[in-house]
Amino acid sequence: MANIMEMAADIVAAHASTTPMSKEELITELNEVHSTLSALEKGEVVEKDEIAEDTPAISRKKAFGKDKIYCMICGKGFKTLSRHLKTAHEMTAAEYRKQFDIPRSQSLASKNYSESRRKMAVDRGLADNLAKARAERAARAKK
Length: 143
Description:
With 143 residues, this protein is an all-alpha fold. It is built from seven helices and two strands; from the N terminus they run αααββαααα. It has helices at residues 4-18, 23-42, 60-63, 82-88, 93-100, 111-124, 126-142, and strands at 69-70, 77-78. Strands 1-2 form a two-stranded antiparallel sheet. The chain is elongated and about 85 Å long.
């Protein structure tokens, strides 16, 4: 049977293989897993520390990437967050922004996704159609 340190290392290695982690995060997680396994081996009751709901799973700097935007609640990556927030966390974008103090100027979509949508709109001439519609609406309002 493997000793506690080997089991803790295996658990952390499995987690690190699917989640990008810094050296400090690896060390912290290894210590937490080791202490939990030691307590379980001794038969002690292990109480889960209550993590505040507003504590982000990922830092704001890491959350807003070029190809993906990561949910600061669960740490999963997406092209856009709006749908994920509604379905998985039952919250609006405004509530999410308020919880993590994210400015309205910060998009909840990845930069590459936003750019590809912008290019598609330009290629389809949507800006020209919008300008025509606004001009027609203004002309009707003057009549």
